[in-house]
């Protein structure tokens, strides 16, 4: 960067101004270019219904979290612990960016139906189990498969699209757990409304995608700065003496 500034001192007029401002713009852009986000998508794996008489369809759901990091690591201590996904020291930056759910009694909701949330403390990282198979349940449409399952506790509450109160809750488990009871189940409770009876869905949130997403803010900032410089230099050339 110092070489660019030194070169600008040797150039007269508009060229000198261009190089100097480009150096400033590039310096300002560097911290922004280094930033990135990671989007994790979890899908609901159902295993039980309470009561079973209230179930009229298979529940399903999607939870999407955005954090500044979410990496696979941790100890490998068979047979109890294995590598797992974790947010490290960046838990305070977690954001629930998408959510949808359809309960076993037919009630449905999206993130817009959530009016209150608790996503853990800012010092507790978001984590998964190791690559493991959790316990199944009597109403599971199929047994859970080998995967990484969310072990962090959180709650979401509000009113379904049909107008009934709900609470989505996940219990806390053991990070990196390779044993079934180290993977906590979730309990999603829906109050009755109309012909839909009250029900509690039991199951797990399985990680299906962890995708890094770079923040492209630096490039538009730099290009807009260069465009502005072009206009400024052109005006200086045509300005009357």
Can you put this structure into words, describing what you see?
- This protein is an alpha+beta fold.
- The protein is 22% helix and 32% strand.
- It has helices at 2-10, 13-34, 218-238, and strands at residues 36-50, 60-67, 71-73, 84-86, 95-102, 108-110, 114-118, 154-159, 165-170, 186-190, 199-214.
- The longest helix has 22 residues, at 13-34.
- The two termini are 34 Å apart.
Summarize the topology.
Blueprint: H1 2-10, H2 13-34, E1 36-50, E2 60-67, E3 71-73, E4 84-86, E5 95-102, E6 108-110, E7 114-118, E8 154-159, E9 165-170, E10 186-190, E11 199-214, H3 218-238
Antiparallel strand pairs: 1-2, 1-11, 2-5, 3-4, 5-6, 7-8, 8-9, 9-10, 10-11
Q: Helix share of residues?
A: 10-25%
Count up the helices.
3
Series of H and E elements: HHEEEEEEEEEEEH
Determine the N-to-C terminus distance.
34 Å
Uncertain stretches of 5 or more adjacent residues: 1-12, 14-35, 217-223, 229-239
* Structure class: alpha+beta
Number of strands: 11
- Major beta sheet, strand line-up: 6-5-2-1-11-10-9-8-7
Number of domains: 2
Brief synopsis:
It is globular, with a radius of gyration of 26 Å.
List keywords for this structure.
22% helix, alpha+beta, 241 residues, 11 strands, single chain, disordered C terminus, 3 helices, 9-stranded antiparallel β-sheet, 2 domains, disordered N terminus
């Amino acid at each position: 960067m110092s070489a660019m500034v030194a070169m600008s001192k040797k150039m007269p007029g508009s060229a000198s101004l261009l190089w100097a401002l480009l150096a400033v713009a590039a310096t300002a852009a560097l911290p922004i270019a280094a930033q990135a986000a990671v989007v994790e998508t979890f899908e609901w794996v159902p295993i039980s219904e309470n009561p079973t008489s209230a179930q009229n369809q298979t529940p399903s759901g999607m939870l999407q979290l955005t954090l500044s990091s979410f990496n696979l690591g941790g100890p490998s201590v068979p047979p109890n612990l294995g590598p797992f996904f974790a947010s490290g020291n960046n838990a305070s930056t977690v954001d629930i960016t998408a959510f949808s759910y359809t309960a076993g009694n037919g009630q449905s909701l999206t993130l817009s139906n959530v009016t209150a949330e608790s996503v853990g403390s800012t010092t507790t990282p978001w984590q998964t189990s190791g690559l493991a198979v959790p316990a199944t349940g009597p109403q599971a449409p199929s047994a859970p498969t080998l995967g990484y399952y969310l072990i962090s506790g959180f709650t979401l509450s509000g009113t379904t699209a049909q107008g009934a109160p709900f609470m989505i809750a996940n219990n806390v488990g053991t990070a990196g757990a390779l044993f079934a009871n180290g993977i906590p189940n979730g309990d999603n409770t829906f109050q009755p409304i109309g012909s839909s009876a009250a029900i509690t869905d039991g199951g797990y949130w399985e990680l299906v995608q962890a995708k890094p997403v770079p923040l492209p803010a630096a490039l538009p900032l730099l290009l807009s700065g260069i465009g502005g410089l072009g206009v400024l230099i052109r005006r200086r050339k045509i300005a009357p003496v």
